[in-house]
From TrEMBL:
Residues 159-187 are annotated as: Disordered. This is DUF177 domain-containing protein. It comes from Mesorhizobium plurifarium. It comes from the Bacteria. Pfam families: YceD. The lineage of its organism: Bacteria, Pseudomonadati, Pseudomonadota, Alphaproteobacteria, Hyphomicrobiales. InterPro entries: YceD.
Amino acid sequence: MKEAVMKDAELRSPVSFVANVARLPQKGLPVVIEADERQREALAAEYDLLSVESYRAELLVASWKRNGVKVTGRVEADITQACIVTLDPIAAHIDESVEALFLPEQSKLGREGFEGGGEIILDADGPDSPETFSGDTIDVGALAEQFFGLAIDPYPRKPGASLDVAGDDQPEESEFQKKLRSLLGKS
């Protein structure tokens, strides 16, 4: 049993916040997550950052449709990454909106999915299709962390840093490249 608890703790988000969605207030449940030093260090390690100076998520967990849940809000953070060219530290600010829909597993749409005959209209500019959840809780902290992770620049580069190799020698163009260029009509 102790192993299962340890494994669950390892998989849990450093900024985990489990919201009970069984009885949400009519105006929704406001959630604010302000990461402490330990949580920021864990986030930095998780995303291979030099540091996370600040992390704050402000979310609203509200009822959606009959049994669903809608989570909206923002996640903001100040981070320091290493330049992919020079390895110098680069400061960055993250300000990402959070929007997600959840349906209970036992709901018809959650059980059968979109292919099983369930139908739902989604806005192309809106949130992704709903995810399912089981029980009465959703880890909205882990959700905010996902949006934080997606907002991190995967290739941070210091202004002026270049990946060019020394020298101006251009490699000789192969026959295939020459033919391809002529077919595309570019000279």
